[in-house]
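Try this one yourself first.
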């Protein structure tokens, strides 16, 4: 495997991404120690309906701006980073992330957890849960920082699948 780490990010509809912030901090710390290149990936989700193909994940250019900002932040910290924005059909974001991980030969795929609950959404699942089940590469899921909590250099808990 190449010395590449992949960071999957999304645009939070409800709060400006504590889960993304926690994952970026973790990747910055890990890549700073290992010297790995970081590929920041955002997958746009599209649904096909009566009026054609419609993006359902975020507003125009919001995902691209997020990737660009994170790449700039990582580069400012002395980390080699690049962005990758992809498209996926509705319900297949995990497969899009997995394809990006395979294309970049990532040694680990990192993403932030949206939830602070113990159980994933059983009815619809979650991107993190699906990625854990589909991936043959290691997956690191970083918990989000509670609002107002002191942020530490160490993760509180992580889930890793290999």
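Now uncover the answer:
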């Amino acid at each position: 495997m190449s010395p590449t780490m992949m960071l999957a990010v999304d645009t939070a509809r409800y709060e400006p991404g504590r889960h993304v912030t926690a994952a970026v901090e973790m990747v910055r710390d890990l890549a700073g120690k290992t010297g790995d290149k970081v590929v920041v990936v955002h997958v746009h989700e599209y649904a096909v309906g009566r009026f054609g193909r419609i993006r359902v994940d975020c507003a125009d250019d919001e995902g691209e701006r997020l990737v660009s900002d994170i790449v700039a932040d990582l580069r400012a910290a002395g980390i080699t980073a690049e962005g990758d924005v992809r498209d996926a059909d509705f319900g297949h974001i995990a497969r899009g992330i997995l394809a990006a991980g395979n294309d970049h030969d990532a040694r680990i795929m990192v993403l932030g957890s949206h939830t602070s609950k113990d159980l994933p959404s059983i009815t619809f699942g979650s991107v993190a849960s699906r990625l854990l089940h589909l991936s043959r590469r290691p997956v690191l899921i970083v918990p989000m920082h509670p609002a107002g909590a002191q942020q530490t250099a160490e993760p509180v808990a992580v889930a890793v699948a290999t």
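Discussion: The first strand starts at residue 4 and ends at 8. The helical segments are 18-34, 62-76, 93-103, 127-134.
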